[in-house]
Specification:
heterodimer, A: mainly beta, 4-stranded antiparallel β-sheet, 11 strands, 0% helix, B: mainly beta, 7-stranded mixed β-sheet
């Protein structure tokens, strides 16, 4: 059974940093691109970042470029999102998602971790 | 960036009804489109990929069609558990973008 479990969310002040983690199981992790997608309270879905199987290729939404970094550790079956320079508008539930092979759909999602940016 | 416009933003229908949700892309995306269902308090669930392919485990009352810029999600024979918000998503290129969602209420 595919499982994605996020952790690392919490309350942080504007300008602060957080590192989100996503532990994957139930599939061959290094065969898949992985992604982070967020959802602000009461709002829709927003794609944040994707990372290639080997970690060498990454893509970001413009609003987080230069502030967020996606990485992965295939030995630990984990993907991470380092978030620096956090802003109030980054407040959201952050979902880790598996990307379908050869395309950019999201076939499995974690339960999400809430990030709140507030003073 | 490719903008995805969904309509309507909300719809109300009865059990057994047929409902159609539309999604329009700001430029052609071939069939690089997915539909997701998000029930209240739950995570999104992939329903349809490549515009018309039913994801494994999804009931056959869900169907998708379209290509280019115009797409539809049809739910035939509505069930109470279909009460949710539905999102379209384009996978033609980065940045990946979603529609703003359509809230489906079951009367």
């Amino acid at each position: 059974e595919v499982q994605l479990v996020e952790s690392g969310g919490g309350l942080v002040q504007p300008g602060g940093s957080l590192r989100l983690s996503c532990a994957a199981s139930g599939f061959i992790f290094n065969n898949y691109w992985m992604s982070w997608v967020r959802q602000a309270p009461g709002k829709g879905l927003e794609w944040v970042a994707n990372i290639q199987q080997g970690g060498g290729e990454k893509y970001y939404v413009d609003s987080v470029k230069g502030r967020f970094t996606i990485t992965r550790d295939n030995a630990k079956n984990s993907v991470y999102l380092q978030m620096d320079g956090l802003r109030a508008e980054d407040t959201a539930v952050y979902y880790c998602a598996r990307v379908t092979v050869g395309t950019d759909y999201f076939d499995y999602w974690g339960q999400g971790t809430l990030v709140t940016v507030s003073s | 960036d490719i903008q995805m416009t969904q309509s309507p933003s909300s719809v109300s229908a009865s059990v057994g009804d047929r409902v159609t949700i539309t999604c329009r892309a700001s430029q052609g995306i071939s069939s690089w489109l997915a539909w997701y269902q998000q029930r209240p308090g739950q995570v999104p669930n992939l329903l349809i990929y490549a515009a018309s392919n039913l994801q494994s485990g999804v009931p056959s009352r869900f169907s998708g069609s379209g290509s280019g810029t115009d797409f539809t999600l049809t739910i035939s024979g509505l069930q109470p558990e279909d009460s949710a918000t539905y999102y379209c998503q384009q996978a033609k290129g980065f940045p990946i973008t979603f529609g703003r969602g359509t809230r489906l209420e079951i009367k």
